[in-house]
Amino acid sequence: MTPLFLLYVESTLHVSIPVEMPLRPLLGGKVEVPCYFLDKSLNDTGALTVATLSHRIKWTYITKDKVDTILVASQGKVEVKQDYLDRAMLVNYPLFPTDATLEMTELRSKDSGIYRCEVTHVANNTLCFYLRTAVMCLIGIVFHYRAISTRYTLTFEKAKAACIQNSATIATLAQLQAAYDDGFHQCDAGWLSDQTVRYPIHHPREPCYGDKRELPGVRTYGVRDINETYDVYCFAEKMPGRVFYSMSVEKFSFYEAKDQCAKLGARLATTGELYLAWKNGMDVCNAGWLADRSVRYPINIARPQCGGDLKGVRSYGLRPATELYDVYCYVERLTGEEL
């Protein structure tokens, strides 16, 4: 039997991902990860298309725990794995067989990570392979927002304004669906940008059945009159500065909290900014004032004394300005400063 040799040589087979890293697509959106290969062993340009279709293209998603295959392509056919059906495809293959560009849609936060484009080819009893990796970081977070302690007080226009006031925009259906796919669960109906009212449910119970009854999923009330009142789902994309926590033994009233942030060269953080800080790892088990007069705190390490066994931004709702809490401030990034 003729032995099969393994080569990992850039001089014969070269793969490139010509894009600035990391990729930063939006939650609920789509992204193209370009990948091209060149096999210098193919000298007969007339047979180039046939030859390159024999190359095997493989995209994988890599985490510290495992390596998941997204899709495999060869001989002009593409096999997408079950977990990525309807979300992943090769954009130009097999029309352009050396173009292994990957498109992914309906992006979720858990899609952040390392992606590997691998090309292999057998020629003259030699298996040649080459690979490149890309890093993708999903941007943005969806959060439920209630203007006052009582549910359902926002018309459609007031809902949009509430999101803007909290460093966000009203969420799209795609963004809410992506948040649901990441595990978001909220039994409160809220406006979306298409004038529909929906809410995401993973664990159905009688008050939260909606139109899906006992099935999990994003519930919908359909398109509603703009003067009806509900809560809202907002989408915070990114912030150029950072959120920080400030405390005092005596605590602060709301107006004292505003003064405290100003003394530190900052301002009160918004709810959207606190959610982004939480998404980036902020964990403080102490309630603090925010700009909308709500009181909240971010938990990334669940523990009993900090809201139970759940992670997230915990809320006391809007509080009287005379009550005493710590404060979350926001400072813009200075030129050349690393945040």
**Low-confidence segments:** 1-10
Spatial gap, N to C terminus: 60 Å
Question: What integer is the average pLDDT?
Answer: 90
Query: Mind telling me the CATH class of the largest domain?
Result: Mainly Beta
- Indicate how many domains the architecture comprises: 3
CATH superfamily of the largest domain: Immunoglobulins
**Helical residues, percent:** 10-25%
Number of helices: 5
Keywords:
339 residues; mainly beta; Immunoglobulin-like; Mannose-Binding Protein A, Chain A; six-stranded mixed sheet; 5 helices; disordered N terminus; repeat; Aggrecan b; immunoglobulin domain; disulfide bond; Ig/MHC_CS
Your description of this structure?
The chain is mostly beta strands and 339 residues long. It has helices at residues 48-53, 156-165, 173-181, 254-263, 271-279, and strands spanning 5-7, 13-16, 31-33, 36-39, 56-62, 67-74, 77-80, 88-90, 102-104, 113-123, 126-136, 141-145, 169-170, 190-191, 196-201, 217-223, 231-236, 242-246, 267-268, 288-289, 294-299, 312-318, 326-331. The chain has three domains: 5-136, Immunoglobulins (Immunoglobulin-like, Sandwich), CATH 2.60.40.10; 141-236, Roll (Mannose-Binding Protein A, Chain A); 242-331, Roll (Mannose-Binding Protein A, Chain A), CATH 3.10.100.10. It has five helices and 23 strands. It starts with a strand and ends in an 8-residue tail after the last strand. Residues 1-10 have low confidence and may be disordered.
